[in-house]
From TrEMBL:
InterPro entries: ASHA1/2-like_C, START-like_dom_sf. Pfam families: AHSA1. This is Activator of Hsp90 ATPase homologue 1/2-like C-terminal domain-containing protein. Belongs to the AHA1 family. Residues 3-110 form the Activator of Hsp90 ATPase homologue 1/2-like C-terminal domain.
Protein backbone atom coordinates (compact mmCIF):
# COMPACT_ATOMS: atom_id res chain seq x y z
CA UNK A 1 0.00 0.00 0.00
CA UNK A 2 2.90 2.34 0.76
CA UNK A 3 4.19 2.09 -2.82
CA UNK A 4 0.73 2.76 -4.23
CA UNK A 5 0.36 6.06 -2.40
CA UNK A 6 3.94 7.06 -3.27
CA UNK A 7 3.33 6.74 -7.01
CA UNK A 8 -0.29 7.91 -7.10
CA UNK A 9 0.22 11.57 -6.31
CA UNK A 10 0.83 14.34 -3.77
CA UNK A 11 -0.27 13.48 -0.23
CA UNK A 12 -2.04 10.38 -1.54
CA UNK A 13 -4.27 8.08 0.49
CA UNK A 14 -5.61 4.69 -0.55
CA UNK A 15 -8.32 2.26 0.48
CA UNK A 16 -8.01 -0.97 -1.50
CA UNK A 17 -9.85 -4.31 -1.53
CA UNK A 18 -7.61 -6.00 -4.12
CA UNK A 19 -9.80 -8.81 -5.44
CA UNK A 20 -12.06 -9.17 -8.46
CA UNK A 21 -15.21 -7.26 -7.52
CA UNK A 22 -13.33 -5.40 -4.76
CA UNK A 23 -13.48 -1.60 -4.58
CA UNK A 24 -10.78 1.02 -4.26
CA UNK A 25 -10.68 4.70 -3.35
CA UNK A 26 -7.57 6.77 -4.12
CA UNK A 27 -7.14 10.41 -3.23
CA UNK A 28 -4.45 13.02 -3.68
CA UNK A 29 -4.22 16.51 -2.27
CA UNK A 30 -3.83 19.33 -4.76
CA UNK A 31 -3.58 23.06 -4.14
CA UNK A 32 -7.35 23.54 -4.40
CA UNK A 33 -8.42 20.40 -2.47
CA UNK A 34 -8.63 16.63 -2.67
CA UNK A 35 -9.07 14.77 -5.95
CA UNK A 36 -10.63 11.32 -5.38
CA UNK A 37 -11.17 8.45 -7.79
CA UNK A 38 -13.10 5.26 -7.09
CA UNK A 39 -13.73 2.02 -8.89
CA UNK A 40 -14.00 -1.74 -8.93
CA UNK A 41 -11.40 -4.34 -9.88
CA UNK A 42 -12.54 -6.38 -12.90
CA UNK A 43 -9.46 -8.52 -13.64
CA UNK A 44 -6.39 -9.32 -11.57
CA UNK A 45 -3.82 -11.56 -13.26
CA UNK A 46 -0.46 -11.27 -11.45
CA UNK A 47 2.02 -10.30 -12.81
CA UNK A 48 0.48 -9.65 -16.23
CA UNK A 49 -2.71 -7.62 -16.09
CA UNK A 50 -4.89 -5.39 -13.89
CA UNK A 51 -8.24 -4.03 -15.13
CA UNK A 52 -10.48 -1.71 -13.11
CA UNK A 53 -13.22 0.86 -13.49
CA UNK A 54 -12.37 4.50 -12.83
CA UNK A 55 -14.63 7.40 -11.84
CA UNK A 56 -14.11 10.74 -10.11
CA UNK A 57 -15.95 10.84 -6.80
CA UNK A 58 -18.62 13.54 -6.90
CA UNK A 59 -18.48 13.92 -10.70
CA UNK A 60 -21.92 15.24 -11.72
CA UNK A 61 -21.58 13.50 -15.11
CA UNK A 62 -21.02 10.21 -13.30
CA UNK A 63 -18.76 9.00 -16.10
CA UNK A 64 -17.18 5.60 -15.41
CA UNK A 65 -14.27 4.52 -17.60
CA UNK A 66 -12.04 1.44 -17.69
CA UNK A 67 -8.28 1.30 -17.04
CA UNK A 68 -6.23 -1.69 -18.18
CA UNK A 69 -2.60 -2.18 -17.16
CA UNK A 70 -0.56 -4.78 -19.06
CA UNK A 71 2.91 -5.80 -17.86
CA UNK A 72 5.53 -7.95 -19.54
CA UNK A 73 9.19 -8.67 -19.03
CA UNK A 74 11.58 -7.15 -21.53
CA UNK A 75 15.37 -7.11 -21.62
CA UNK A 76 16.50 -5.30 -18.52
CA UNK A 77 13.09 -4.46 -17.10
CA UNK A 78 9.32 -4.43 -17.43
CA UNK A 79 7.14 -2.89 -20.11
CA UNK A 80 3.92 -1.22 -18.95
CA UNK A 81 1.06 -0.58 -21.35
CA UNK A 82 -1.74 1.52 -19.86
CA UNK A 83 -5.08 1.92 -21.61
CA UNK A 84 -7.78 4.21 -20.25
CA UNK A 85 -10.94 3.87 -22.34
CA UNK A 86 -14.60 4.81 -22.44
CA UNK A 87 -14.49 8.61 -22.32
CA UNK A 88 -17.49 10.51 -23.64
CA UNK A 89 -15.32 13.38 -24.97
CA UNK A 90 -11.78 13.35 -26.46
CA UNK A 91 -10.61 16.33 -24.39
CA UNK A 92 -11.26 14.44 -21.19
CA UNK A 93 -9.08 11.57 -22.41
CA UNK A 94 -6.21 14.00 -23.06
CA UNK A 95 -6.43 15.39 -19.51
CA UNK A 96 -6.27 11.88 -18.09
CA UNK A 97 -3.31 11.03 -20.32
CA UNK A 98 -1.35 13.89 -18.75
CA UNK A 99 -2.24 12.68 -15.25
CA UNK A 100 -1.26 9.10 -16.05
CA UNK A 101 2.08 10.30 -17.48
CA UNK A 102 2.81 11.97 -14.12
CA UNK A 103 1.87 8.78 -12.24
CA UNK A 104 3.94 6.55 -14.52
CA UNK A 105 6.90 8.90 -14.15
CA UNK A 106 6.71 8.56 -10.37
CA UNK A 107 6.42 4.78 -10.71
CA UNK A 108 9.53 4.67 -12.92
CA UNK A 109 11.43 6.67 -10.30
CA UNK A 110 10.39 4.17 -7.60
CA UNK A 111 11.18 1.06 -9.69
CA UNK A 112 14.92 0.81 -8.89
CA UNK A 113 14.07 0.50 -5.18
CA UNK A 114 11.71 -2.46 -5.75
Amino acid sequence: MDLLVRWWGPEARAEVDLRVGGRYRLSMRLGWGDLVCVGTYREIVPPERLVFTFAWEGDPAGEETVVSLFLREVDGGTELILRHEGFAAPGVAENHRDGWMDCVGRLAALAPAL
